[in-house]
Amino acid sequence: MLEECQMVYDDVQDKMDRSIEHLEKEFQNIRAGKASPDMLNGVMVDFYGAMTPINQTSNITSPDPRQIIVQPWDKSQISNIEKAILAANLGFNPKNEGEILRIIVPAVTEERRKDLVKKAKAEAEDTKVAIRNSRRAGNDDAKQLEKEGTPEDDVKKLQDDIQKLTGDYTEKVDKLFEAKEKDIMTI
Questions:
Q1: Which of 1, 15, 24, 143 is the most buried (most CB within 10 A)?
Q2: Which residues contact residue 56 at a Cβ distance below 8 angstroms, ignoring those fewer than 6 apart?
Q3: C-alpha count within 13 angstroms, C-beta hemisphere, residue 165
Q4: Does the pLDDT at position 43 exceed 70?
Q5: Three-state DSSP class for residue 165
Q6: Is residue 177 a contact partner of residue 121, using CB atoms and an 8 Å limit?
Q7: What is the pTM of this model?
Q8: What's the rounded Cα separation, in Å, for the pair 161 and 159?
């Protein structure tokens, strides 16, 4: 019976790990300050009728901390790439120079920094909700094990372990958010 409890625990931990990974990915997309090709991650281009990630349509570089250069592999697609960047609503206004798109990354204002912190806080809260949902699913599985004959003490220990795990992962989210907030406000 302990084997089933361990499986439930491992499943809950795996779901919580994935929630943290998702949060870290989302935090990478919230950037303040220095221009980076990663700022365009998530931009999808209508490339010959198929929605394609921008990095599969162009060479993207950042020659200095204030600009990004997008050099399409097929020059005829430059207007579609420009439209995709504008549609992504990243706050960028690409300048079409015929063969390349030049994006000047604006200096981040105090107001923009606060907006970025709000966005990071919302992502952190969403992750905490996902962690709590994982806890609830784990507790439901534990109750099901008890109905199937697992001793009550084993189920109680499993639920206690899941609660401790939830606290640990919630603390991780708080630490990641604090680090991201500091990063945003000090650039």
A1: 15
A2: 47
A3: 25
A4: yes
A5: helix
A6: yes
A7: 0.70
A8: 5
